[in-house]
Amino acid sequence: MPVAPPQPGLMNLANVLTVFRLVLVPVVVACLLAGGTFWRIAAFIAFGIASVTDLLDGRIARSRGLITDFGKIADPIADKALTGASLVTMSYLGWLPWWATAVILAREVAVTGLRFWVIRYGVIAASRGGKLKTLLQVLAISLYMLPGIPQWLRAAVMAAAVVVTVATGGDYVIRAVRLRRRPVSGKVPGAVTPGRDPTP
Predict the structure, then answer these.
(1) Can you tell me the distance from the alpha carbon of 195 to that of 197, in angstroms, rounded to the nearest whole number?
(2) In sequence order, what are the residues at sequence separation of 6 or more whose Cβ sits closer than 8 angstroms to the Cβ of residue 24?
(3) Is the pTM of this model over 0.85?
(4) Cα-based angle 29, 31, 32 (whole degrees, multiple of 5)
């Protein structure tokens, strides 16, 4: 009988990057609350580093066979914690309207719930819209963090991020429902083997 490959250990590079991203969340918030040009730039740098780890941990886990149950849960939590904490803090400081923060967070919470609802059936594959959503959110948040950026530019990018966030959320709901209705062994277009979050 074929021998199953050994399961990756909990302490691996992908999981370390995920935990590091979680550690950076309070750092970003603290820098934003400190105020002043220096601390806003520091928040931008910390947020940028955390965003890069979001790109790396999933790719490393999939390419090196380091997918773990911890990573499946912690990765999306770290993503939402970073985005959510940044948005809430900026709205608290009066930089960003609360409605924009509420819409984005509501979508992310709903999609996270759907992800766990269908996880035994598969993971919805990343779409171009999902990747664009992530890019626009990171760009919009970064523009609000950096001092000296024209307000109209910040607002325009954030508005685009909100629109794409809502649109991709609706698409994810449709694909999740289709996947959930299929038998466990069935194949669904746009679904992949359960693993780390492919950024829907």
Answers:
(1) 7
(2) 46, 47, 49, 50, 53, 82
(3) no
(4) 65
